[in-house]
Amino acid sequence: MDVVMLSRLQFAVASLFHFLFVPLTLGLSVLTAIYETRYVQTGDEDYKRAAKFWGKLFLINFALGVVTGITLEFQFGTNWSSYSKYVGDIFGSLLAIEATLAFYLESTFIGVWAFTWNRVSPKVHALFIWLVAIASNVSALWILIANGWMQHPVGYVLRNNRAELQDFVAVITNKFALLEFVHTVGWAYVVASFFVMGICAYHLLRKNEVDFFKKSFKIASTFALIFTILGVFTGHLSGSEVAETQPSKLAAMESHWETKQNAPMYLFVMPDEQNERNSVEILPIPSMLSLLAFHSPSAEVKGLKDIPKEERPPVSLTFWSFRIMVGIGTLLLLIVIFAWKNRHGIEACPGLLRILLLAIPLPYLGHEVGWIVAEVGRQPWIVYGLMKTSDAVSTLARSQVLASLWAFIVLYSLLGLVDFYLLAKYARKGPQPAES
Amino acid sequence: MLETIWFILWGVLWAVYFMLDGFDLGLGTLMPFFAKNDTERRIIYNAMGPFWDGNEVWLITAGGATFAAFPVAYAVMFNGLYSALLLLLFSLILRGVSFEFRNKVESPAWRALWDACLVVGSFLPALLLGVAFANIFQGIPIDKNGVFQGSFFSLLNPYGLAGGILFVLLFLVHGSLWLAVKSDGGLQQRAASAASRLWPILLVVAVLFLAYTYVATNLFDNYFKIPILWVLPLLAVSGLLLIKAFVAKKAWWGAWFASSLTIVGVTLFGVAGLYPNLLPSSIDPEFSITAFNGSSSQLTLKIMLGVALVMVPIVIAYQTWVYIFLRNKVTEKDLLY
């Protein structure tokens, strides 16, 4: 493998790992804030205990999320220095704005919140966790505006051998980026609410603290229902946006080889990348791809064969990741409908509880493959249509990157195991008894 | 003009980062020497607990501001210092997680493991940051394409190592003083006596470093050109002397502020000497990356300046409020970590 491939792998490892923690941070901060707000409103001690219990899991998760985020920001410089020089004028400023606007707020008030139980009034304490929740979501907004610019660059001009900012408003109102934000954050809330529902299920199956977990469950299931539906909807919108702006990604997502109007969608497809065809295509739904992508059954959908070979993304990986993502999304929608309908008597549905417990990893997996669709599907471009990944890399020795890649893999695996162990330990332990 | 403003802001961001996270890094390094039992260890963790994360964001912002305002410098510096930088980041990762992980399991072996991570994860960043900045003061071997021609080991040259030692000592004193502020009894005595004993060593190293800087770098050129700049090293020196005075009076907050002043003074002394260079080339001054040939477009600099002028004071305001709000000594009954 060359430096480009090794650097890509390293970035993939670093971002996929970081992304195991980010969605829970985004969603669980909001849920914890909601539980604490319920406590302020009702004075019900169970909600205070809920905020503490879920907040503790939030903190264990947050620790790894925060420390693995820094390596991402700095990797643009270490491994992608040509990219950084070429687009830093725009991309760098978005990251810097993220830090000043959101990251300080989040990192400062998470400490304050954790350390001031019983030292300030409940209202003020709830305000602290809301600040954390808002800041982490604002942080996601700026990161996704930055990523959205890589997906669909706008508001720039090529000058002085680089992309320079021309229209800041265009960059921050980039439709691609804003859709990416609502889609990613919406599904992050789904990750968090399935996490909460699954842990509630674990305890409800054991008849442990039934009242407490039912209260947590009711709020989480409503949250899950809203954001799963929203997630499916924004997924559809994002797909149409991809169709408009990134024809090569769309074609790879669908393994769609021939340009045609009334393009059908096949329920089962087996891509054969080598021979530029699909070895299996069964159960077609006529004109469905055209309809979904362009909202018109007769619309023309560009096929991979009309895209030069050197500008096509890896088809199989993009295709399968997309299918898995959509499959998981559909499955989660089904589960959440049942969960929400039965939320008042959920303790009496052991089958559903078992499913909910087993479903905890599903939204995580959906998030990871979704990210693969977005990033691998954009290849060979690092900035779509503007700069190729192979032109973006730093001047490095292969041995340097190989060593750091292994260091990432070993360190992250160990820390991931520890974090998983601690989350499981404290999730099983359940909430602390109420203070007398 | 905008480039110069951003150059100053860039220096200030680094200075504030060193001032704030410096005490975490120093105290983390000294933790096992101060604490006699698990409760004392926990008090030390909790003395940094609510602050370290917010402090570390100053590093992220310093990195982000370099990227935004001086993308060429960001690219050349981070690419060139690849191994050192990743080592720094891995260390900071270990430091960060040890706070959250340590007290979650009762076993002494588990706690010893994370204590070791805290020490390594605090000491290495202090050393590496010093080495990196001293190398920048001295100039690094970048060619005309901005490609770094040295290696990780070439950074460990005598002047680089001197910078590393200086930073470690600055942070050790700073961290000891922070613990003196935040603790009581035996722990406070040990912290205070460490600060007193480290102080003369720091003084000697700082003086030697200053002399070495005169020999090994061009930093003083700016000072002879613009004499008003002497105020910066003067700040550092008066900070250093004030530490001694406050420690003698057992005025820990005062001593900690004096130590902050020293760190800020030392950083700004170096940065002002560098101007307009961000990365001087030791191969040929022509190849240096400066605030002018390495900067972003005027529009980006303008927008980012607007963001900085609004947001940085707000950040300083709420972080100051947090330090004041949580100013009390850490006691056994309010331990979270």
Structural summary, described in words:
The mean pLDDT of chain A is 93. Chain A is globular and about 65 Å long. In chain A, the strands form four sheets. Chain A has a two-stranded antiparallel sheet with strand order 1-2. In chain A, strands 3-6 form a two-stranded antiparallel ribbon. Chain A has a two-stranded antiparallel sheet with strand order 4-5. Chain A has helices at residues 3-42, 45-79, 81-115, 122-151, 168-172, 175-205, 210-245, 247-254, 288-294, 315-341, 350-358, 361-376, 398-429, and strands spanning 156-159, 162-165, 260-261, 265-272, 277-285, 300-301, 381-383, 387-388. In chain A, helix 1 (3-42) runs antiparallel to helix 4 and helix 4 (122-151) packs across helix 6. By secondary structure, chain A is mainly α. Chain A has a domain at 1-141 and 393-423. Chain A is built from 13 helices and eight strands. The radius of gyration of chain B is 20 Å and the shape is globular. Chain B has a two-stranded antiparallel sheet. Chain B is mainly α and 337 residues long. Chain B contains twelve helices and two strands; from the N terminus they run H-H-H-H-H-H-H-H-H-H-H-E-E-H. The longest helix of chain B has 33 residues, at 2-34. Chain B has one domain. At the A-B interface, helix 2, helix 3, strand 2 and helix 13 of A face helix 3, helix 4, helix 5 and helix 12 of B.
